[in-house]
Give the backbone structure.
Amino acid sequence: MRDKKISVSVVVVTYNASSYIIPCLKSVLGSRGVAIEEVLVVDNNSSDNTLELVKKYFGSDPRVKIVRLRRNMGFPYACNVGVRLARGRYVVLMNPDVVVDPYCFARLAEFLSQNSDVAVVQPKLLKPGGYIDGVGGVMDFLGHGFHLGMYERDSGQYGEPRDILYASFACAMVRRDVYLRLGGMDPRFFLYNEDLDFCWRAWLAGYRVVYVPGAVAYHVGQHSTRRIPYRALYFGRRNRLYTIFTNYPLPAAVVASLMLMALYLVLGVKAALSDPYEARLTFRILARFFRDLKYLAGRRAATPRRASLTGMLRRGLVTFRLVGLRLHLAGLYRAQLRIKVKPGRAKE
């Protein structure tokens, strides 16, 4: 590590996170090898005692600052607020159900400082028990994101840095200037696919997104949607459609969007026989897409195009294999809706 510590800001987005926030902030404030400039707890109007706990246990630390939003604006909006307020050159975006290794941020910051073409870095995310939660992600042609290594036991098999299409913003470090220049995450996404969409735009702007194996964090996982799986289903499917329409080159965007809408139509008809609420959500996604078409077209026009789809395919960041479709046909997304663990699940 360098003698002079790199200054880092941390943005922790909370919503009814009282069960997690204390160990999360203790681990952040115990970071070594970097100077924690500030920890911005951006709260989405929690109804539990999350903020009371922050004040009780960390109120005497001037680095810990609370930003309370008037209502639940979603993860992307809250992150955007935090990054705008942050003073550090590098900013960590993280969930409250993550605990970081003492040198996690130092190794991420060191990698960014040595690689000017990298905009986002992700640590190795582990689950309790030594299983991998993710080492970054790639995507199939229809926009289904996949956390690499998910549910594998960690035995050092992901020991080298590698380019990834997207970093999981459960815990990731970004260059503040690049984040703001790209407009941050799309606040309409609310949750799910916002990290994939942003990182894809970073690639299109000419930057890289990289997994850094020496940095480690531990993720309890999916705190915000554990008890509301239909919300996860709605935003996951809708945001996937929005992402591929706005980020692919136009011919691929049209083909992929039509294929995905056809899949959703089939899923909606099928769900009408067994789960009418899921069916209504699916048809609502299709209707919403056409209502938002003008907005999405504007996003397309504002998205830089310095990286080609061919180059991303060559790097292995995108695959034409329709892995997500096979999981749909196998019924594994139905299992996910029931909160069952299935190896190799797509990012819903």
Observations:
- The two ends are 38 Å apart (CA to CA).
- Residues 7-225 form a domain with the Spore Coat Polysaccharide Biosynthesis Protein SpsA; Chain A fold (CATH 3.90.550.10).
